[in-house]
């Protein structure tokens, strides 16, 4: 049976035998009562890695983000600044409006937000009742695979707090941005709360962490229960997270190097990158495709077991690598690209 390489997202991973073994052998208890030792271990581990007081294990990053927003925004009418392309704004089912009665103000900026963006859109008061004051700024790191500079996060945090507001980071792929424990803590301590995904790139079937102060997490835990997110013997899933942090997170630099090799090979055949390749994502600008379109490339690769996603955001083909994508897959893609490119370059007979 030929292998299948799914590059539509880094959520396409499956648990390895070693991860499954860790899950099966995990000691468990009732997490709603705070009695699951493996969940408690994971929460303590992640809070400590991030340099924060506490963490909360959730079913998904969407839940973690929405819990953060609901916990921070408790005095409507309020508004939140975020990136136009952010997951919180586009892909969380309108959760901020539904759960928190808050106005999201999206900012168009490429590829990440700057402190000037925040200053330009920050609402300081209600202007005689016409506006919803800004009480939260939401950042995303990475954004389409591009790492947000630490200096920008620091500047945004300093300005936002000087205005009496808070900063949350959707750090679903912060594991990719941070090469190790020191870097993760440096990013994490610059924000008031953050989410970390375990099913994007980390190989887990389920899970995310919300991190912040003890008081903040205690309140978020209350809302998690209200959202229907209280779970019992969740240590089976938490064990996958502990395994991923110890064994899969350290492999990310190799995945990033593979993504860069793929990007370089595609560029040599005439494809244009929509964004620089910092981590595990290669974004191809389909509007500037060479003679062989990305659609033709996708069709040619499918019988060979390589699955590429549909065009992303209208004009970009997003290719996402993870720890289960190997050199053989990248070699297959580049060989196919070169073959198609040569065929398209031959003069018609």
From TrEMBL:
GO cellular component, one term: cytosol
Domain (Aromatic amino acid beta-eliminating lyase/threonine aldolase): residue spans on this chain: 6-288
Family: Belongs to the threonine aldolase family.
UniProt-recorded name of the protein: Threonine aldolase
Alphabetical keyword list: Lyase, Pyridoxal phosphate
UniProt GO MF annotations: L-allo-threonine aldolase activity
Species: Coemansia spiralis
Positions of modified residues (N6-(pyridoxal phosphate)lysine): 200
Enzyme Commission (EC) number: 4.1.2.48
InterPro entries assigned to the protein according to its UniProt record, in alphabetical order: ArAA_b-elim_lyase/Thr_aldolase, Low_specificity_L-TA-like, PyrdxlP-dep_Trfase, PyrdxlP-dep_Trfase_major, PyrdxlP-dep_Trfase_small
Cofactor: pyridoxal 5'-phosphate
GO-annotated biological processes: glycine biosynthetic process; L-threonine catabolic process
Root EC class: lyase
């Amino acid at each position: 049976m030929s292998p299948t390489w799914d590059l539509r997202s880094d959520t396409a991973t499956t648990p390895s035998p070693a991860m499954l073994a860790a899950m099966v052998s995990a000691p468990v208890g009732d997490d709603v009562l705070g009695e699951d030792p493996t969940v408690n271990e994971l929460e303590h581990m992640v809070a400590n890695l991030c340099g924060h007081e506490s963490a909360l294990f959730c079913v998904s990053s969407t839940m973690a983000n929405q819990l953060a927003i609901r916990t921070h925004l408790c005095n409507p009418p309020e508004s939140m600044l975020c990136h136009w392309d952010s997951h919180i704004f586009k892909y969380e089912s309108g959760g901020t409006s539904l759960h928190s009665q808050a106005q999201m103000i999206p900012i168009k900026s490429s590829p990440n937000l700057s402190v000037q963006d925040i200053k330009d859109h920050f609402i300081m008061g209600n202007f005689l009742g016409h506006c919803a004051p800004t009480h939260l700024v939401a950042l995303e790191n990475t954004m389409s695979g591009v790492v947000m500079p630490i200096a920008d996060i620091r500047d945004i945090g300093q300005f936002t707090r000087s205005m009496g507001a808070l900063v949350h980071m959707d750090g679903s792929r912060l594991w990719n941005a941070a090469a190790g424990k020191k870097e993760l803590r440096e990013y994490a301590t610059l924000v008031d709360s953050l989410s970390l995904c375990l099913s994007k790139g980390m190989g887990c079937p389920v899970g995310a962490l919300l991190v912040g102060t003890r008081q903040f997490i205690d309140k978020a835990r209350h809302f998690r229960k209200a959202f229907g997110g209280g779970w019992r013997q969740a240590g089976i899933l938490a064990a996958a997270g502990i395994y991923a942090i110890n064994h899969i997170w350290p492999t990310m630099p190799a995945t990033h190097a593979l993504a860069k090799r793929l990007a370089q090979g595609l560029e040599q055949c005439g494809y244009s990158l929509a964004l620089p390749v910092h981590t595990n994502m290669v974004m191809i600008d389909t509007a500037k495709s060479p003679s062989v379109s990305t659609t033709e490339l996708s069709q040619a690769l499918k019988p060979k077991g390589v699955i590429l996603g549909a065009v992303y955001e209208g004009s970009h083909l997003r290719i996402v690598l993870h720890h289960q994508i190997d050199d053989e897959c990248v070699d297959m893609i580049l060989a196919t690209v070169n073959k198609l490119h040569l065929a398209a370059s031959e003069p018609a007979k």
